[in-house]
Design a protein that fits this description.
The protein is of the alpha/beta class and 445 residues long. It has 16 helices and 14 strands. The longest helix has 35 residues.
Amino acid sequence: MSNTPYGEALGRTLIERTIREKIVLVGVALDGQSDSQNEASLDELALLVDTAGADVVGRLTQRRDTPDHTWYVGKGKADELRELCLAVDADTVVFDNELAPAQQYNLEKLLGRTAIDRTAVILDIFAQNASTLEGKAQVELALLRYRLPRLRRGASAKLSQQRGGVGARFGSGETKLEVDRRRIQQRISRLERELRELGSTRELQRKGREKSGLASVTIVGYTNAGKSSLLNRLTAAGVLAENRLFATLDPTTRRLSLPGGEPVLLTDTVGFVRRLPHGLVEAFKSTLEVASRADYLVHVVDGASTDPEGEIDAVRTVLEEIDADRVPELLVFNKSDLDPIAVADLVERHPGSVGVSALTGDGIENFLRTLSDRLRALGSVVELLVPFDRGDVVAAIHREGEVVSTSPDEGGLRIRARLSGPSLGRLAEYVERSHPNGRPANDQN
């Protein structure tokens, strides 16, 4: 994609290492966060580190009212962290909390090894998994925006140039700080231009899909909830579905026929995670906007997760950030094959939701019927006049909508039905009147 060191680094696959990098995790429970929440967050960070291709060899926790401005942890805990790193021969320290550039620099000087935060690990995973031109550009943009304020002369810059590993897919590749900053800023500007051009192409594709008159349904959810597995179950899309975080970065759209026969466009999206880096959300906005423009969201939740409610909240936080929180959603609790009792309990606690197993197909028929009913309920009641010899049109109305009443007329069969926007587009030539409240215009009762 580019002749710069940044573009070349992005084009490479995961660095092959015979010995996996050793990582020490650090979590600071601040005011308002319980120790159990802190441990659960560290457990998730350990999964992220494993996905990035490294091993956790130790962890350290501390409770503080506010972060220390120099090392984030207190001085005594920082010294304890240094001793732990020496004892386990750690390569890198990963903080679950977001480090300021100055804190990161001070920690690296004290520890004598690289110190990064949760954001850097997530960016590293995205850098490994990006496959399309747009995905690579989005990830590189987020990475460069993250690294720009962290460029410094001295030990940390030398370390980033001399080693690979988690959080270091993009070394500065230069020796002079000013040159580094100028090159990165130039590269950021170029990537922004490329993404605008790619966004224009995506917009044309979107308009083409809208002209098809098909309803748009977007699958969203926490990472590893089973979104791609569900898409594959429904459409045989052949999307990569692995038991690992962020296996899918690029959206995939497939056509799906609902039980009544009405077709919709179903799109898979990148998984979300707690504290998804804002820079990453910004970089991926052109991809994530498919959710904000959908007619309906299928929110897939891992029903066997230890904290499904927290994952629901995390997804909804990101949906709000990308202006997709107003789109109606259907909660789908997945993995009933792993924990049927937990999934059944979640469905009971969330009225209107459904439970499924994307792996075995259990509950899929009920899910499709529910989705079909929800989409039909979005439609307005219209009155159509269909010629008697157009039985195919009458069948389409029954198939794609909810028929309220039928009566013969001298011009054909008069039908009142609730139809969605896409169906209305296809049947526009037969529509006579619409009734947003479900009643004819002359009905005063």
